[in-house]
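testing teh design pipeline on a random one, pls ignore if ur not involved
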C-alpha cells in the first residue's frame, strides 16, 4: 500500500451500502464501489408485483371516493346558492 492510499478513509454508506474512499484533505470521493445486487427468487418478485397491483387498486378506489365527495360538496354548495337566489 502506498503512502497516498494510507491517507484515504473508507466509508460505508448506511443507506445503500456503497463503499466510498474519501480523501480527508479535499473531502472528495477518490473511488466508490457499489455492493453486489441480491438475487431475488421468482416467488419474491411475483409477491412484490401482486402487492404493488393491490396498492394501485386501493389508491384508485380512494381517489374515486374522494372525487365523489368533492362532487357531493359541490352539488350541496350549488343547491345552497340556488336556494339563496330563489329567496331573493
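output:
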Amino acid at each position: 500500500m502506498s503512502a497516498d492510499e494510507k491517507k484515504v478513509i473508507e466509508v460505508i454508506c448506511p443507506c445503500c451500502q456503497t463503499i466510498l474512499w474519501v480523501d480527508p484533505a479535499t473531502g472528495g470521493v477518490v473511488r466508490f464501489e457499489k455492493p453486489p445486487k441480491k438475487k431475488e427468487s421468482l416467488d419474491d418478485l411475483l409477491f412484490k408485483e401482486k402487492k404493488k397491483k393491490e396498492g394501485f387498486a386501493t389508491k384508485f378506489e380512494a381517489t374515486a371516493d374522494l372525487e365523489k365527495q368533492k362532487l357531493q360538496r359541490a352539488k350541496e354548495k350549488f343547491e345552497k346558492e340556488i336556494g339563496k337566489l330563489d329567496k331573493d
